Amino acid sequence: MERARESTVIKNVPELSGNLKRDLLQEIAREFGTPVYVYDLDRIEQQFRALKEAFSGRKALICYALKANSNLSVVQRLAQLESGADCVSLGEIKRAILAGIPKYKIIYSGVGKQEFEIKEALRCGILFINLESREEMLCVEKCAKELGVVARISVRVNPDIDPQTHPYISTGLKENKFGVSIESAKEMYLYAHKSSFLEPIGIHFHIGSQLTKLQPIAESAQKIARLTHSLLALKMEIKFFDIGGGLGISYNEEETISPYDYAQAILGELRGLDLTIICEAGRFIVGNSGVFLVSVLYQKENQGKHFVIVDGAMNDLLRPSLYGARHRILALKNAESLRNVDVVGPICESGDYLGKDIALPPLNSGEILAVMSAGAYGFSMSSHYNSRPNCAEVVISKGKARLARTRESFEDLVARELECLK
Ligand SMILES: *Cc1c(COP(=O)(O)O)cnc(C)c1O
Fold this sequence. Notes:
Helices cover 29% and strands 23% of the residues. It has helices spanning 22-32, 41-54, 72-80, 90-98, 115-124, 134-147, 182-194, 214-233, 259-267, 283-286, 319-323, 410-414, and strands at 10-11, 36-40, 60-65, 84-87, 106-108, 128-131, 151-156, 198-204, 240-242, 255-256, 276-279, 290-302, 305-310, 329-331, 339-344, 353-360, 368-371, 392-397, 400-405.
Protein backbone atom coordinates (compact mmCIF):
# COMPACT_ATOMS: atom_id res chain seq x y z
CA MET A 1 0.00 0.00 0.00
CA GLU A 2 1.28 3.42 -0.91
CA ARG A 3 1.74 5.83 1.97
CA ALA A 4 1.26 9.51 1.43
CA ARG A 5 4.51 11.46 1.19
CA GLU A 6 3.61 13.34 4.34
CA SER A 7 5.57 13.17 7.50
CA THR A 8 3.86 12.44 10.75
CA VAL A 9 4.87 15.37 12.86
CA ILE A 10 7.13 14.39 15.70
CA LYS A 11 7.47 17.17 18.16
CA ASN A 12 9.13 16.21 21.36
CA VAL A 13 10.84 18.30 23.94
CA PRO A 14 13.87 16.50 25.29
CA GLU A 15 13.16 15.57 28.89
CA LEU A 16 15.07 13.72 31.53
CA SER A 17 13.85 10.18 30.99
CA GLY A 18 15.03 6.59 30.88
CA ASN A 19 18.29 6.25 32.78
CA LEU A 20 18.76 10.02 32.92
CA LYS A 21 17.05 10.64 36.26
CA ARG A 22 17.63 13.69 38.45
CA ASP A 23 18.87 11.73 41.46
CA LEU A 24 21.27 9.60 39.49
CA LEU A 25 22.64 12.63 37.64
CA GLN A 26 23.18 14.42 40.97
CA GLU A 27 25.02 11.37 42.22
CA ILE A 28 27.18 11.22 39.09
CA ALA A 29 28.08 14.91 39.44
CA ARG A 30 29.03 14.29 43.07
CA GLU A 31 31.05 11.17 42.39
CA PHE A 32 32.83 12.08 39.16
CA GLY A 33 32.75 15.87 39.34
CA THR A 34 31.71 18.39 36.70
CA PRO A 35 31.82 19.21 33.87
CA VAL A 36 30.91 15.70 32.75
CA TYR A 37 29.12 14.09 29.83
CA VAL A 38 26.61 11.34 30.64
CA TYR A 39 25.32 8.90 28.00
CA ASP A 40 22.33 6.59 28.40
CA LEU A 41 23.43 3.42 26.59
CA ASP A 42 19.96 1.90 26.78
CA ARG A 43 18.48 4.91 25.01
CA ILE A 44 21.22 4.64 22.38
CA GLU A 45 20.18 1.02 21.88
CA GLN A 46 16.51 2.03 21.51
CA GLN A 47 17.36 4.64 18.89
CA PHE A 48 19.54 2.21 16.98
CA ARG A 49 16.80 -0.41 17.03
CA ALA A 50 14.16 2.10 15.91
CA LEU A 51 16.24 2.99 12.89
CA LYS A 52 17.00 -0.62 12.08
CA GLU A 53 13.32 -1.48 12.40
CA ALA A 54 12.42 1.31 9.96
CA PHE A 55 14.44 -0.42 7.24
CA SER A 56 13.35 -3.94 8.15
CA GLY A 57 12.16 -6.02 5.26
CA ARG A 58 15.04 -4.67 3.16
CA LYS A 59 18.70 -5.61 3.23
CA ALA A 60 20.08 -2.79 5.31
CA LEU A 61 23.15 -1.98 7.36
CA ILE A 62 23.32 0.86 9.85
CA CYS A 63 26.85 2.26 9.84
CA TYR A 64 27.01 4.49 12.91
CA ALA A 65 28.87 7.75 12.16
CA LEU A 66 31.59 7.76 14.81
CA LYS A 67 32.26 11.46 14.56
CA ALA A 68 29.01 12.20 16.42
CA ASN A 69 30.31 10.48 19.56
CA SER A 70 33.33 8.22 19.39
CA ASN A 71 33.52 7.22 23.05
CA LEU A 72 34.67 3.58 23.04
CA SER A 73 31.94 2.39 25.41
CA VAL A 74 29.28 3.95 23.18
CA VAL A 75 30.77 2.36 20.07
CA GLN A 76 31.13 -0.97 21.90
CA ARG A 77 27.43 -0.97 22.73
CA LEU A 78 26.61 -0.33 19.08
CA ALA A 79 29.05 -3.05 18.02
CA GLN A 80 27.14 -5.49 20.25
CA LEU A 81 23.99 -4.50 18.35
CA GLU A 82 25.75 -5.44 15.10
CA SER A 83 26.19 -1.89 13.89
CA GLY A 84 28.71 -1.02 11.20
CA ALA A 85 30.73 2.19 11.25
CA ASP A 86 31.08 5.26 9.07
CA CYS A 87 34.55 6.67 9.66
CA VAL A 88 36.17 9.88 8.44
CA SER A 89 39.76 9.30 9.55
CA LEU A 90 42.16 6.46 10.26
CA GLY A 91 41.73 7.28 13.94
CA GLU A 92 38.00 6.54 13.69
CA ILE A 93 38.65 3.32 11.76
CA LYS A 94 40.99 2.17 14.52
CA ARG A 95 38.48 3.17 17.19
CA ALA A 96 35.72 1.23 15.42
CA ILE A 97 37.91 -1.87 15.21
CA LEU A 98 39.02 -1.47 18.83
CA ALA A 99 35.37 -1.31 19.88
CA GLY A 100 34.65 -4.57 18.09
CA ILE A 101 33.02 -3.46 14.83
CA PRO A 102 33.93 -6.00 12.14
CA LYS A 103 36.19 -4.61 9.40
CA TYR A 104 33.78 -5.71 6.70
CA LYS A 105 31.16 -3.33 8.14
CA ILE A 106 33.38 -0.25 8.09
CA ILE A 107 33.17 2.44 5.43
CA TYR A 108 35.56 5.31 5.02
CA SER A 109 34.39 8.80 3.95
CA GLY A 110 35.88 12.30 3.87
CA VAL A 111 37.35 14.74 1.32
CA GLY A 112 40.99 14.61 2.42
CA LYS A 113 42.06 11.01 2.96
CA GLN A 114 45.84 10.68 2.93
CA GLU A 115 47.87 7.94 1.29
CA PHE A 116 48.89 6.32 4.59
CA GLU A 117 45.27 6.31 5.72
CA ILE A 118 44.02 4.82 2.44
CA LYS A 119 46.68 2.10 2.51
CA GLU A 120 45.88 1.19 6.09
CA ALA A 121 42.17 1.04 5.25
CA LEU A 122 42.93 -1.24 2.30
CA ARG A 123 45.15 -3.47 4.44
CA CYS A 124 42.34 -3.76 6.99
CA GLY A 125 39.93 -4.88 4.29
CA ILE A 126 37.12 -2.48 5.14
CA LEU A 127 33.82 -2.70 3.21
CA PHE A 128 34.50 0.24 0.86
CA ILE A 129 35.98 3.70 0.51
CA ASN A 130 33.68 6.59 -0.39
CA LEU A 131 35.50 8.61 -3.04
CA GLU A 132 35.06 12.36 -2.99
CA SER A 133 37.04 13.39 -6.10
CA ARG A 134 38.68 12.09 -9.27
CA GLU A 135 42.15 12.81 -7.90
CA GLU A 136 41.39 10.84 -4.79
CA MET A 137 40.21 7.94 -6.96
CA LEU A 138 43.56 7.92 -8.75
CA CYS A 139 45.33 7.97 -5.38
CA VAL A 140 43.25 5.02 -4.14
CA GLU A 141 43.99 3.15 -7.38
CA LYS A 142 47.73 3.77 -6.94
CA CYS A 143 47.63 2.62 -3.31
CA ALA A 144 45.73 -0.56 -4.24
CA LYS A 145 48.19 -1.29 -7.04
CA GLU A 146 51.15 -0.88 -4.70
CA LEU A 147 49.56 -3.22 -2.18
CA GLY A 148 48.47 -5.68 -4.85
CA VAL A 149 44.80 -5.53 -3.83
CA VAL A 150 41.52 -4.44 -5.38
CA ALA A 151 39.95 -1.43 -3.64
CA ARG A 152 36.19 -1.62 -3.18
CA ILE A 153 34.83 1.88 -3.74
CA SER A 154 31.73 3.98 -3.97
CA VAL A 155 31.47 7.55 -5.22
CA ARG A 156 29.95 10.28 -3.10
CA VAL A 157 27.56 12.07 -5.40
CA ASN A 158 26.57 15.63 -4.64
CA PRO A 159 22.95 15.86 -5.81
CA ASP A 160 22.91 19.68 -5.55
CA ILE A 161 19.90 19.77 -3.28
CA ASP A 162 19.23 22.24 -0.50
CA PRO A 163 18.75 20.18 2.67
CA GLN A 164 17.14 23.15 4.48
CA THR A 165 19.38 22.91 7.51
CA HIS A 166 22.10 25.10 9.04
CA PRO A 167 24.56 26.21 6.30
CA TYR A 168 27.54 24.88 8.27
CA ILE A 169 26.08 21.37 8.21
CA SER A 170 24.64 21.32 4.72
CA THR A 171 26.84 19.28 2.40
CA GLY A 172 24.82 18.42 -0.69
CA LEU A 173 24.86 21.73 -2.57
CA LYS A 174 27.23 22.34 -5.44
CA GLU A 175 28.95 25.12 -3.49
CA ASN A 176 29.86 22.63 -0.72
CA LYS A 177 33.22 20.87 -0.83
CA PHE A 178 31.66 17.41 -0.62
CA GLY A 179 31.18 14.81 -3.35
CA VAL A 180 31.15 15.21 -7.12
CA SER A 181 28.44 16.13 -9.61
CA ILE A 182 26.34 13.42 -11.20
CA GLU A 183 28.20 13.90 -14.49
CA SER A 184 31.65 13.56 -12.88
CA ALA A 185 30.44 10.59 -10.85
CA LYS A 186 29.45 8.79 -14.05
CA GLU A 187 32.91 9.35 -15.53
CA MET A 188 34.54 8.14 -12.30
CA TYR A 189 32.44 4.97 -12.31
CA LEU A 190 33.36 4.29 -15.94
CA TYR A 191 37.04 4.69 -15.10
CA ALA A 192 36.82 2.53 -11.96
CA HIS A 193 34.87 -0.16 -13.79
CA LYS A 194 37.76 -0.56 -16.26
CA SER A 195 40.53 -0.41 -13.64
CA SER A 196 42.05 -3.67 -12.41
CA PHE A 197 42.55 -2.17 -8.96
CA LEU A 198 39.17 -0.55 -8.34
CA GLU A 199 35.84 -2.27 -7.85
CA PRO A 200 32.82 0.02 -7.70
CA ILE A 201 30.32 -1.68 -5.39
CA GLY A 202 28.40 1.24 -3.90
CA ILE A 203 26.90 4.65 -4.50
CA HIS A 204 26.78 7.32 -1.82
CA PHE A 205 25.21 10.64 -0.95
CA HIS A 206 24.98 12.64 2.28
CA ILE A 207 23.28 16.01 1.92
CA GLY A 208 23.66 17.37 5.42
CA SER A 209 23.04 16.95 9.11
CA GLN A 210 20.04 17.68 11.35
CA LEU A 211 17.63 17.12 8.45
CA THR A 212 14.04 17.79 9.44
CA LYS A 213 12.36 17.79 6.01
CA LEU A 214 11.56 14.76 3.89
CA GLN A 215 11.44 16.42 0.51
CA PRO A 216 15.20 17.03 0.04
CA ILE A 217 15.96 13.46 1.14
CA ALA A 218 13.44 11.95 -1.26
CA GLU A 219 14.63 14.15 -4.13
CA SER A 220 18.24 13.19 -3.53
CA ALA A 221 17.39 9.50 -3.35
CA GLN A 222 15.50 9.86 -6.61
CA LYS A 223 18.43 11.51 -8.42
CA ILE A 224 20.92 8.96 -7.12
CA ALA A 225 18.60 6.04 -7.89
CA ARG A 226 18.39 7.25 -11.49
CA LEU A 227 22.18 7.30 -11.70
CA THR A 228 22.32 3.82 -10.16
CA HIS A 229 20.01 2.46 -12.85
CA SER A 230 22.30 3.79 -15.54
CA LEU A 231 25.37 2.25 -13.86
CA LEU A 232 23.65 -1.11 -13.58
CA ALA A 233 22.74 -0.88 -17.25
CA LEU A 234 26.49 -0.62 -17.93
CA LYS A 235 26.95 -3.94 -16.11
CA MET A 236 28.50 -2.47 -13.00
CA GLU A 237 27.85 -4.50 -9.90
CA ILE A 238 26.57 -1.83 -7.55
CA LYS A 239 25.37 -3.59 -4.39
CA PHE A 240 25.17 -0.82 -1.80
CA PHE A 241 22.99 2.27 -1.82
CA ASP A 242 24.52 4.47 0.87
CA ILE A 243 22.07 7.18 1.92
CA GLY A 244 24.47 8.94 4.32
CA GLY A 245 23.27 10.14 7.69
CA GLY A 246 21.62 13.35 8.74
CA LEU A 247 18.31 12.31 10.29
CA GLY A 248 17.48 15.18 12.66
CA ILE A 249 16.39 15.23 16.29
CA SER A 250 14.37 17.63 18.46
CA TYR A 251 16.55 19.96 20.50
CA ASN A 252 13.65 22.15 21.60
CA GLU A 253 10.29 21.79 19.97
CA GLU A 254 11.38 21.46 16.37
CA GLU A 255 9.41 19.11 14.22
CA THR A 256 11.50 16.25 12.95
CA ILE A 257 10.98 13.19 10.79
CA SER A 258 10.21 9.73 12.12
CA PRO A 259 12.62 6.97 11.14
CA TYR A 260 9.72 5.19 9.44
CA ASP A 261 8.86 8.13 7.18
CA TYR A 262 12.54 8.68 6.50
CA ALA A 263 12.97 5.08 5.40
CA GLN A 264 9.77 5.11 3.35
CA ALA A 265 10.78 8.30 1.54
CA ILE A 266 13.99 6.60 0.43
CA LEU A 267 12.61 3.14 -0.23
CA GLY A 268 9.88 4.75 -2.33
CA GLU A 269 12.57 5.85 -4.79
CA LEU A 270 14.29 2.46 -4.93
CA ARG A 271 11.64 0.39 -6.65
CA GLY A 272 13.26 -2.08 -8.98
CA LEU A 273 16.66 -1.75 -7.32
CA ASP A 274 17.76 -4.76 -5.29
CA LEU A 275 20.47 -3.10 -3.23
CA THR A 276 21.60 -3.18 0.38
CA ILE A 277 20.83 0.15 2.00
CA ILE A 278 23.49 1.68 4.18
CA CYS A 279 22.42 4.37 6.64
CA GLU A 280 25.21 6.37 8.31
CA ALA A 281 23.23 7.84 11.19
CA GLY A 282 25.09 9.63 13.96
CA ARG A 283 23.10 12.34 15.69
CA PHE A 284 19.82 10.39 15.61
CA ILE A 285 21.34 7.52 17.57
CA VAL A 286 23.23 9.45 20.25
CA GLY A 287 22.02 13.09 20.28
CA ASN A 288 19.16 12.87 22.74
CA SER A 289 20.81 10.03 24.65
CA GLY A 290 23.33 12.28 26.36
CA VAL A 291 23.46 15.25 28.72
CA PHE A 292 26.27 17.54 29.71
CA LEU A 293 26.37 18.32 33.45
CA VAL A 294 27.88 21.55 34.73
CA SER A 295 28.03 23.23 38.14
CA VAL A 296 27.01 26.79 38.85
CA LEU A 297 30.00 28.90 39.87
CA TYR A 298 28.68 32.46 40.12
CA GLN A 299 25.79 34.63 39.09
CA LYS A 300 25.99 38.22 38.00
CA GLU A 301 23.88 40.98 36.57
CA ASN A 302 25.14 43.43 33.97
CA GLN A 303 22.70 46.30 33.36
CA GLY A 304 19.59 44.18 33.73
CA LYS A 305 21.00 41.09 32.02
CA HIS A 306 21.45 38.02 34.20
CA PHE A 307 24.34 35.62 33.73
CA VAL A 308 24.89 32.23 35.31
CA ILE A 309 28.55 31.30 35.10
CA VAL A 310 29.20 27.56 35.05
CA ASP A 311 32.27 25.32 34.97
CA GLY A 312 31.61 23.90 31.47
CA ALA A 313 32.42 25.96 28.39
CA MET A 314 32.67 26.14 24.60
CA ASN A 315 35.77 23.96 24.68
CA ASP A 316 33.54 21.16 26.07
CA LEU A 317 30.39 21.86 24.06
CA LEU A 318 31.01 23.95 20.95
CA ARG A 319 27.63 23.70 19.25
CA PRO A 320 26.07 26.86 20.74
CA SER A 321 29.12 28.98 19.85
CA LEU A 322 29.71 27.40 16.44
CA TYR A 323 26.18 26.95 15.11
CA GLY A 324 24.10 29.08 17.45
CA ALA A 325 22.59 25.75 18.51
CA ARG A 326 19.93 25.99 21.21
CA HIS A 327 20.13 23.25 23.83
CA ARG A 328 17.57 23.05 26.63
CA ILE A 329 19.11 23.51 30.05
CA LEU A 330 17.46 22.17 33.21
CA ALA A 331 18.26 22.77 36.84
CA LEU A 332 18.37 19.37 38.54
CA LYS A 333 16.73 20.78 41.65
CA ASN A 334 13.08 21.32 40.93
CA ALA A 335 12.15 24.60 39.36
CA GLU A 336 9.93 27.24 40.91
CA SER A 337 9.95 30.88 39.84
CA LEU A 338 11.77 30.94 36.53
CA ARG A 339 13.63 33.89 35.05
CA ASN A 340 15.62 34.22 31.85
CA VAL A 341 19.39 34.05 32.10
CA ASP A 342 22.38 33.44 29.86
CA VAL A 343 24.38 30.38 30.87
CA VAL A 344 28.04 31.10 30.13
CA GLY A 345 31.40 29.42 30.65
CA PRO A 346 34.70 30.70 32.02
CA ILE A 347 36.46 31.05 28.62
CA CYS A 348 37.68 34.47 27.53
CA GLU A 349 35.38 34.85 24.50
CA SER A 350 32.01 36.57 24.30
CA GLY A 351 30.94 33.64 22.12
CA ASP A 352 31.50 31.27 25.05
CA TYR A 353 28.00 30.37 26.13
CA LEU A 354 25.96 27.20 26.56
CA GLY A 355 22.56 28.88 26.37
CA LYS A 356 20.96 32.30 25.92
CA ASP A 357 17.63 33.35 27.45
CA ILE A 358 17.27 30.11 29.34
CA ALA A 359 14.46 29.97 31.92
CA LEU A 360 16.02 28.85 35.19
CA PRO A 361 14.99 29.06 38.84
CA PRO A 362 17.09 30.97 41.39
CA LEU A 363 20.31 28.97 41.78
CA ASN A 364 22.96 28.54 44.41
CA SER A 365 26.58 28.10 43.65
CA GLY A 366 27.37 24.38 43.33
CA GLU A 367 23.98 23.47 41.91
CA ILE A 368 23.98 21.20 38.88
CA LEU A 369 22.55 22.10 35.48
CA ALA A 370 21.90 19.52 32.75
CA VAL A 371 22.51 20.70 29.19
CA MET A 372 20.16 18.46 27.23
CA SER A 373 20.62 16.73 23.85
CA ALA A 374 24.39 16.77 24.25
CA GLY A 375 25.13 13.20 23.15
CA ALA A 376 26.10 14.12 19.57
CA TYR A 377 28.87 16.50 18.50
CA GLY A 378 29.58 17.31 22.14
CA PHE A 379 32.69 15.71 23.57
CA SER A 380 33.82 14.69 20.08
CA MET A 381 34.23 18.38 19.15
CA SER A 382 35.92 19.40 22.38
CA SER A 383 39.27 21.21 22.52
CA HIS A 384 41.80 22.38 25.07
CA TYR A 385 41.21 26.10 24.49
CA ASN A 386 42.27 28.18 27.50
CA SER A 387 44.33 25.16 28.66
CA ARG A 388 41.23 23.45 29.92
CA PRO A 389 41.65 19.67 30.29
CA ASN A 390 38.90 17.62 28.59
CA CYS A 391 36.11 16.61 30.94
CA ALA A 392 35.07 13.11 32.01
CA GLU A 393 32.49 10.88 30.31
CA VAL A 394 30.12 8.54 32.14
CA VAL A 395 27.83 5.87 30.68
CA ILE A 396 24.66 4.48 32.24
CA SER A 397 23.16 1.12 31.48
CA LYS A 398 20.21 -0.41 33.35
CA GLY A 399 20.39 2.30 35.97
CA LYS A 400 24.07 1.76 36.73
CA ALA A 401 26.60 4.51 36.05
CA ARG A 402 30.23 3.83 35.11
CA LEU A 403 33.14 6.10 34.32
CA ALA A 404 33.91 5.74 30.59
CA ARG A 405 36.69 8.30 30.23
CA THR A 406 38.66 9.89 33.04
CA ARG A 407 38.96 13.64 33.35
CA GLU A 408 42.23 14.89 31.85
CA SER A 409 44.88 16.35 34.10
CA PHE A 410 47.26 19.26 33.66
CA GLU A 411 49.98 16.69 32.93
CA ASP A 412 47.91 15.35 30.02
CA LEU A 413 47.73 18.89 28.62
CA VAL A 414 51.49 19.41 28.46
CA ALA A 415 52.58 15.80 27.94
CA ARG A 416 53.55 16.23 24.29
CA GLU A 417 55.24 19.61 24.57
CA LEU A 418 59.00 19.96 24.44
CA GLU A 419 60.56 22.73 26.46
CA CYS A 420 62.94 23.92 23.73
CA LEU A 421 64.45 26.79 25.65
CA LYS A 422 65.18 25.02 28.88
C1 LIG B 1 28.63 13.57 9.58
C2 LIG B 1 28.32 12.49 8.63
C3 LIG B 1 27.34 11.54 8.93
C4 LIG B 1 26.50 11.60 10.19
O1 LIG B 1 25.67 12.70 10.21
P1 LIG B 1 24.52 12.81 11.34
O2 LIG B 1 23.86 14.09 11.03
O3 LIG B 1 25.19 12.82 12.66
O4 LIG B 1 23.62 11.65 11.18
C5 LIG B 1 27.14 10.53 8.03
N1 LIG B 1 27.85 10.44 6.89
C6 LIG B 1 28.80 11.33 6.57
C7 LIG B 1 29.55 11.17 5.30
C8 LIG B 1 29.06 12.39 7.42
O5 LIG B 1 29.99 13.29 7.08
